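Title: Prediction job returns without error message
Component: structure pipeline
Severity: low
Priority: P3
Assignee: unassigned

Description:
Job completed but the reporter wants confirmation the result is attached to the right record. Sequence as submitted:
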Amino acid sequence: MRSASKLLAAALLALPLAAPAAVQVQYLEPDEYTDASQRSGGRAPSESLKRELTAELQRLGEQYLEPGQELSIDVLDLDLAGRFQWWDASRGEVRVMDAVTWPRMRLSYRLTRGGRTLEQRQEDLSDRNYLDAASGRSSDPLRYEKNMLEAWFRSRFGGGRQAG
């Protein structure tokens, strides 16, 4: 009986574990993005902004992708919600949000499992109703972009595990 238990335990240890879902993100030609700077007058995203968006995409991958799936995302363009009002110096480095400055992102992605491509597309994401959405991230400067990305993950990969 004891040897059977040891054999069963050894067999279970030899089974491959399901690899967690993984998301890799690249920012292609960020100097050409429409509006990705968190500073007035800039276009390119800062390293901290790229880290923040990458971390969010990886978190969403863990939540929505199935174990063993890998998602490679190339960010082709980014247009953050709101605009700096360059003609009004009193506003300084504050993004002003209004109904015509919704967040947008153009990306291409490739979803794979075990090296086999499951899906590959280029998409334009946007959230025209971003001001209507209640957000639990009210102090997060990227809350609108993160809400847009979560809605995209939910609609595109909603068949995944959706923990949470």
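Comment from assignee: result matches the submitted record. Residues 20-157 form a domain with the Rossmann fold fold (CATH 3.40.50).
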